[in-house]
Automatic annotation (TrEMBL):
Keywords: Membrane, Transmembrane, Transmembrane helix. This is Succinate dehydrogenase. It comes from Kribbella alba. It comes from the Bacteria. The chain crosses the membrane at residues 23-43, 88-109, 149-169, 175-195, 236-259.
Length: 266
């Protein structure tokens, strides 16, 4: 039996939509951004090079942490936990799996993906092309329910990125220094943490399942803070995509020697 807009008892309208505005512009724009990021990230993780600038200790977030013997000298801040990887295996496989899982199962990206990539539906009053709808109860969409667990992984990687950011205050003579790369890395850090802390799962973890906030003042304070960030979760989600790309592209360019890092101090 057909479900959705074709279900029995629902008005059968032959037109794709009666809307006369440019409803397709928003899903098209978001779809292009998401597709570009997926292609860019996929290409970069398989490059396995130009992710570490030893002169200034810049490590791109796409390769953090680098914990294989195949990593270039100096980039393994946490040591090497694995032996050498085959050339075809991405050094950032674990990082990509966790962070892609976190973003891919994110409530905002679900909405963006449904509307822009799967047209389910593309916009209000625009019927979706799918004849059947099972929600997130069957594979592969049932995997989206793992979001809260990917959130914990994102917290760990967020702390690792902070450590990388501290390492970026490295001068060319080995002391303290600040360059344009340092600022870009920290701007990206701020946006990543805004995105992570504004997550719906984070809001539930810090304040969910409580019957009386007055008995948990600290958790109520955290819940209030996250609740203020939560309405802008979509903005942080999209902005952090651009800051990640900018940070990776800048570090790649400096590491490859395409241009030198602009130094403000040392």
């Amino acid at each position: 039996m057909a479900t959705g807009v074709s279900a029995p008892g629902r008005a059968q309208i032959g037109q794709k939509t009666l809307r006369t505005d440019r409803w397709w512009l928003a899903p098209l724009r978001i779809g292009v951004i998401l597709a570009f990021f997926v292609v860019y990230a996929t290409v970069r993780i398989f490059m396995n090079k130009w992710y570490w600038d030893d002169a200034h200790h810049y490590l791109t977030p796409l390769y953090s942490p680098c914990i294989s013997d195949s990593c270039v000298p100096g980039s393994s801040h946490l040591g090497t936990w694995f032996g050498s990887f085959p050339r075809w295996l991405p050094l950032s496989l674990i990082t990509f799996a966790v962070l892609a899982g976190f973003r891919g199962t994110c409530y905002y990206y679900r909405k963006a993906g449904y509307r822009s990539l799967f047209f389910a539906p593309a916009a209000c009053a625009v019927p979706e092309p799918h004849k059947n709808y099972t929600g997130e109860t069957k594979f592969p969409l049932v995997v989206l329910n793992l979001h809260r667990y990917f959130f914990y992984g994102a917290l760990v990687f967020g702390l690792l990125n902070v450590y990388d950011g501290v390492q970026a205050f490295h001068g060319e003579d080995g002391g303290f220094g600040i360059g344009l790369g340092t600022l870009i890395i920290w701007i990206n850090l701020v946006m990543l943490w805004f995105y992570t802390l504004s997550c719906h799962a984070c809001r539930h973890i810090v304040g969910g399942r409580l019957k009386n906030f007055s008995k948990h003042p600290l958790r109520y304070r955290y819940w209030t803070f996250v609740s203020k960030l939560n309405p802008k979760h979509g903005t942080f989600a999209m902005t952090s995509l651009f800051t990640v790309i900018l940070t990776d592209a800048y570090i790649m360019s400096v590491s490859a020697g395409w241009f030198s890092d602009l130094r403000f101090f040392n």
